[in-house]
């Protein structure tokens, strides 16, 4: 056997035919890259394939794509990957949803007791509003009542139900069942901070559960579980 002609060093024939794709950028933005596992910039690409003879493009072979290319890892993904929320967007939606739910429960309670306000403020701060205070929440509930003409301690009206659905409907598909249940449990604990559920608080909590796509039996189970000290 001649030197350099072993199995690992055997000469390979040149590739005569192949295909090559020429990519064109048609958009960009930020997405959650499943390859990197975090928020990254991306380019949206469409491509044109050509038959290549000895490295020279000779015949068109049609279009391909569109695809999403991660600017960091360079991997290509289907465009459905853009349906996944970025971490930044998800955090903002979750924070806003918890804030809206807390205000709705406080408004339903009617009295805005100090214990309810303290529980609500702690919940909202944990969700991302680091500077939220009891006084801020109380002022917001009062302003909400004056702006909408809402009467405290009444069932969840159409306007409040719409606000809850607007905050929760886009978020629910991106939450695991445990995440959806966690939001409802947080709301329930705000309602229970100053005593048993009132009919108005139960109505709001049921609306929250519906918006989070939690079935009625599970809503009942969770509202009972929230009454049990952990």
Automatic annotation (TrEMBL):
Which superkingdom, per the lineage? Bacteria
Instruction: Please list the residue ranges annotated as the Co-chaperone DjlA N-terminal domain.
Output: 96-221
InterPro entries assigned: DjlA_N, TerB-like
Coiled-coil stretches noted in the UniProt entry, renumbered to this chain? none
What Gene3D superfamilies does UniProt report for this protein, alphabetically?
TerB-like
Q: What is this protein called?
A: TerB family tellurite resistance protein
């Amino acid at each position: 056997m001649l030197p350099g002609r072993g199995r690992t060093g055997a000469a390979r024939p040149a590739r005569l035919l192949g295909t090559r794709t020429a990519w064109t950028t048609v958009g960009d933005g930020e997405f959650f890259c499943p390859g990197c596992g975090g928020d990254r910039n991306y380019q949206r690409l469409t491509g044109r394939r050509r038959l290549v003879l000895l490295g020279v493009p000779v015949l068109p072979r049609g279009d391909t794509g569109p695809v999403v290319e991660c600017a960091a890892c360079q991997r290509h993904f289907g465009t459905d990957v853009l349906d996944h929320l970025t971490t930044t967007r998800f955090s903002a939606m979750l924070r806003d949803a918890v804030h809206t739910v807390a205000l709705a429960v406080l408004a339903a309670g009617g009295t805005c007791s100090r214990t309810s306000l303290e529980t609500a403020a702690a919940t909202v701060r944990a969700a991302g509003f680091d500077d939220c205070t009891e006084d801020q929440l109380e002022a917001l509930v009062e302003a909400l009542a004056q702006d909408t003409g809402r009467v405290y301690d009444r069932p969840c009206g159409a306007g409040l139900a719409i606000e809850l659905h607007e905050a929760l409907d886009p978020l629910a598909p991106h939450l695991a069942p445990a995440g959806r249940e966690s939001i409802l449990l947080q709301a329930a604990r705000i309602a229970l901070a100053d005593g048993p559920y009132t009919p108005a608080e139960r109505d709001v909590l049921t609306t929250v559960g519906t918006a989070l796509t939690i079935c009625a039996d599970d809503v009942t189970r969770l509202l009972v579980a929230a009454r049990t000290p952990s």
